[in-house]
Amino acid sequence: MASITPEITGSKNFYTPENAHFYAANLYQPLEPDVDNFRILEILPGNDSDNIICNIIQPFYLDTSYEALSYRAGDPRDIGEITVNGQLFNAFATLFAAIKRLRYPDKSRLVWIDQICINQSDLTERSSQVPKMRKVYERAERVIAWLGPLSGGELAFNTIHSFYHDYLRKNDLLNQSHIHPERRGVVWEIANEYMKDLEVASQKKNNELLVKAKALGKLIHSEFWTRVWIWQEIIVAKSVELVWDTKSMDSEPFFTTAEMIVKMATTISFDQLPKSTTAVFKISTCRLICAIFILRRHWDPESPLDHKYLLRKVRQAQSSDVRDRVYAISGLISPNYQIIPDYTSTPATVYCRTAWSMISRDRSLDLLTFCGHPTVQSTLVLPSWCPDWSTKSRETRHPLSDRRSDYRLQPTFAASRTRFQASKNIPSSCRMESVNDKDTGFQSFALVVEGLHIDIVEEVNENPVVHQYSDAVYQELLESCSRIVSKRRTLTEELKREVHRTLIVDNYGSLKNSDPRYSPNGKHSAKLDAIQGGRLFFISPTGLMGMAPPHVQPGDLICVLFGAKIPFLLRRKGEVYILIGEVYMSDGYMEGRAIDEMEVAFRRLFHPKMWFKKPRSPEWFEIH
Length: 624
Hints:
The chain is α+β, with helices and mostly antiparallel strands. Helix content is 34%, strand content 18%.
């Protein structure tokens, strides 16, 4: 079979193996954009050593039975050759392996595969087909999640089924005892038993349990789970089958095992285990898997998911095209946001228009809390008010308006779990304007917002960053901040408690201890964030205390913007402003004191607690 030298073809930031010869054959028939018709790949039968031969069936309608493939594309330089409609086609190597594994020896198999069923050389078709992908995966008889060839795959398979067997057995025993078990309780019990066994096993050499844990870690941390598109592909599916090597299983045992691993990781003492097994307990991937599982359980096509929750989660995922960080969730959120894929627009334009669509339709500026300092430097040039979904955000610094939610909860409820209401019920009053960026010369977008200027930052506590938490380190930070406060206010025990409340950002505005949903974990994470420099303590000339992003500077403006639960810092730049980030403020401003002062000022009534000399009145801020 003749070989084609693979070269990377970039189409507006999307990278796929070079297939110029294939596209030149004009095999793709146009698809009607307003009709639910697609193409499907017919994988012809063959044995393991046979060349892979396929045919594209077009048009294909969704009332016919088919399967859909979910896979991680990988490096476009790494390919496998297949034949499609008599023409050579360079498939991603991961896709080549998947097709070879899925091919039947004696009959054809109909599978929807994005790299082949969508004409990747046609930007217009790509833009029109992406909004239909939810229907493709929703109506497929089965979604096949290809995890790839994995060493120790069979052992991992047996380990997962062992976990799940224990779960079902304990569940049945409780039901037989007329005890209706809560899923979390059963999972906790099995996780605790396994941890005890693992700690004992770690004291022995070549123990079977340790080998199983290592194999399980490779499966759990497959790069497949970091792919951004799997959120939609798995959440909406009728049925999900996980496939790797020669093994396959239903998704339920796998997701239950991931949930157990998260439980185990919350109680594990890593210094008691061999390094070869600790990889399985790096829970960031497990949390993503569990989040997908929870959403899949509660998925209702008539009830869209919370867009802010999804956008925060997918920042930890990966995609070859940064625009897909937005487009990949467009089928899961309300169609009212009108996020219409357009691969002819630049990523910066896509992000700005998406942000504005959400701000204008929600009449809320809470999305601005996602504008922060990422862990990876961005390659995009964005205005300061537009979240950069192309980069990972800090793991320890979660938006104050969207408090870190327990992955067991339905994420659509997460946004309401805060007491903070800085602007009360006043909706946002803003507009987006097209401007020319003076620094780059490119077209950009400005957000013009209305709000109140409260105060300015006068002094910032530049505490040394400490990566290991301890009560002594936190106490030292508390004393340092208290000394700054004592320069402007008499330091009473009550005020010192207010300093502590400020440092832990009032536990992210969570509900009080009397509420059963209250979690003390928020306090610990807030303390950790403070000593690690995720937020810095500051004070204003009038003695207001706060916690701000680490790039805060003296002179930054403290503002309450209408339509935002959280105050923000703005920095003047000539006649416009730059958004620095969200800010926690003391003395009641998180609960709406600024709005109370404004309303009192409007009525020109005396207010004994007012700290300002002039009546507070709204201003307009043009944010670039």
